[in-house]
Amino acid sequence: MKHILRKALLSVLAACICSFTLTAKVTLPSVIGDNMVLQQQSEVAIWGWTDSSKKVSVQTSWSKGKQWAEPDSEGKWLLRIKTPAAGGPYEITISDGEKIKLKNIMLGEVWFCSGQSNMEMPMRGFRNQPVEGAGEIIMSAKSSTPIRMITTKHTAAPEPVRDIEGRWAENTPEAVASTSAVAYLFALRLQQKLDVPVGIIVSEWGASTIEAWMDKATLDDKFAGEFDNCFLGESKQPKLKQQVPAALFNGQVCPLVPYTFKGMLWYQGESNQDRPNQYVRLQKEYVAMMRELFRNPEAPFYYVQIAPYNYSNPDGFTYGYFCESQQKSLDVIPHSGMATTIDLGEYGSIHPGKKKEVALRLANLALVNDYGFKGITPTSPAYESAKFENGSATINMKVDGQGLAPWGQNIAGFELAGSDRVFHPATGRIKDNKTLVVTSPEVPEPVAVRYGFRNWKPGNLYNAWNVPAGPFRSDDWDSEGTPAPLRVMSFNIRYSSAKDGENAWDIRKEATPAMIREIKPAVFGLQEAMEDQVQYILEQCPEYKYVGVGRDDGEKKGEQMSVFYDSTRIELLKWGTYWLSETPDVPSYGWDAACRRTATWTLLRHKDSGRQFYFVNTHLDHKGATARKEGLALVYKRIQEMNREGLPMVLTGDFNVFPDDECLSDVSSLMKNARNNAQETDSLGSFSGFGEFTQDRLEMIDYIYYRGFPSCLHFKVVIDSYAGKEFISDHYPIYADLVFPELKI
């Protein structure tokens, strides 16, 4: 898949710089022009178009000699030009027989700045929404200050376009007034501290979604089925064209490829805040795409955590859940940093006026991380852990040696909840360098703490450098509007009539409900379960219900491939059982099987979100190789037939084969193996034979497959002991946490 994606990315790059029509003389993209800033001490891209029969020469005033490029059949050409240390102004002469001279070129630091309205907000502000201190900064601008800026015109396109509308401008009051405030103030800070020219490429659009800034190849590969690829001109599309997947990439990013820059700034998220889980994956893949397309794999990526605002419900948690997703991105995006803004929000405006503070926090990240400055810590204090005892929450924070601030004052923004999960206002006090104690008279026995998590709940917790902590929480309770991950489990319970001595069912049975209560699966498939085992689980875990039939008579006799579901979370809509045989609708042996084998299928509904999904549980024969192969082929066929609406689907079972067995090939082409695709996984085996095999000899024969779930967060083989029993069965349970797909736009 990786080589396919790379090929797709290269084709996008070709589209970004291709001509579409043959050209009689040299033409250049708008981003290559007078007044531009090129990245110093680098190999910068210079490209354009000409008649395909002509060679193009490029000569710079900072070096001797010419470099030559030969256009391809479409007339496009590209050169990589070495640049020395910062300086200028310089000139570049480009010729295919007719010369073009680019003037007033500076060499320095170049940053790519993108996002939605808070990146778009210019120095002059929006109507009735000024930028604080903007007037003085605008009027202080001088063209002699080596800051240059180019802003792309808003362009949503169904296919990649060749060029943007925009041009490089010098640092005049007029140009500064119309330039992104965050981007400009970032550039101003860098220029003052580095004393080199700084260029900013600004490509933004208010109310845009992150998927609009991503190319179709990435969306198709990494987010298949999650978005309608409803490009402009087609009947189905979002109300706002800046939210059409890939449309802004086509119109405002692709034409800039492969301009060379130092790093990226990103201020976006408000339009994606109802999809926090998905956003972590989107942002990770956006950055990976940009780094690959612009041939800059180490490009720093600094982004802004959105600010608090009433969001039509000041007491809601939408803001907190989304900020949490932005915090998580730091762990999955290398060389990234986040500027927190919990102290800069405005209750009545989604566009805070304190853009200078935002820009300074971004700039300090760059100055310390990329330019070698020392003396401060530009990163936010981060939540590490919480302990609940004696009616309070003791919170440990990750912070530098200077500690937390403000010392000796009440810290606002905290809330505590007891076992009822109702949050009440609370007060925090700094205990020592990295520890706070939080209390609330309304919560005598707290079990969870949150900070700044509501849409409007500003806080005042900082590090010693006045960098605020962002929203955090200790609990993992479901987020608003986004279903919690679906925990599914597969477990071969070992039939109750087996002569297992000290591991007989009557001796070890207490371990099973203990395990279920700890793991808390929403749905699980049970193999080899006899009727007495099913009833015991129902008695001990009354929140669960089940469906399934005995394999011998289609009623109660023999082992069941039961599907259990937590009825407080899951609703059963349909179900059925079929036999893995040539006569699947009646109890029967199949092929060379030693036993009758069945599969139980269910159509379920997640109550909180209304999402529907299929769950199938089976057990392949332990002796008959043909029965295993043909039985799984029947399951594969039935899955395709039953799920014509394309709902998410889970398949669990004891397959009695190792992962490299060829009988898994068809299912593996249709569904994903949770172990192989989980973000966090293990390499343990699932069959122990009650200790006959140690972990270094164990193999995996139990499986969870899924389809239609965008990702699997965790996969685990549960080797723990329960109820004082060393072995819960001759198999270990396995579980996976699956992320529901986001609703299509």
Mean pLDDT: 91
As residue ranges, the low-confidence spans are 1-6, 18-23, 232-236
What form results from the Cα inertia axes?
Answer: globular
By DSSP (H or I, 4+ residues per run), the number of helices equals 16
Taking the sheet with the most strands, its summary is: 10 strands, mixed
Number of strands: 34
Share of helical residues? 10-25%
**How far from one another are the termini?**
26 Å
Q: Any idea what the radius of gyration is?
A: 30 Å
Which structural class should the secondary elements be placed in? alpha+beta
* Strand residue content: 25-35%
Put the structure in a nutshell:
With 745 residues, the protein is an alpha+beta fold. It is built from 16 helices and 34 strands.
Would you give an account of this structure?
Strands 1, 3, 4, 6, 7, 8, 9, 10, 11 and 12 form a ten-stranded mixed beta sheet that branches. Strands 13-14-18-17-16-19-21 form a seven-stranded antiparallel beta sheet, with helices on one face. A seven-stranded mixed beta sheet has the order 24-25-23-22-34-33-31. Strand 10, helix 8 and strand 11 form a beta-alpha-beta unit. The protein is of the alpha+beta class and 745 residues long. Helix 5 crosses helix 10 and helix 8 packs parallel to helix 9.
